[in-house]
Predict the structure.
Amino acid sequence: MSKLTIITDRAMELAGQAGAGLRHAGSSVRHAGHNAEHWIRTGAALGTARAGARAAGKVVRRNPVAVAAAAAVVGAGVLAYVLYRKRREQQHAAPLDGQAQRIEKERDGARPRPRRSRAAAD
């Protein structure tokens, strides 16, 4: 197991124990704060995140070239995905056969309707 996994498991175990202790405690402790168990779990999660950030910082310091290469690969992947989405949207919005014809309205000898002037509209 990695250190991060061990730390995470231990933090969740402690959060569970603390929550169980609050559940079995008297009503005065139980009503001391709303969602006390939730706050304890949140604190454990923050501790785990800090430990993970420290571990990631050590990896970056020890292997800067590998991290830069990984970032470049991720960036290329994101760029490829954006281009894929753009191409798919263009194909979706493209006309079916690529040709269009204007269809004029047929008039059965009828007179065109007179247009109202702007002065009459106001």
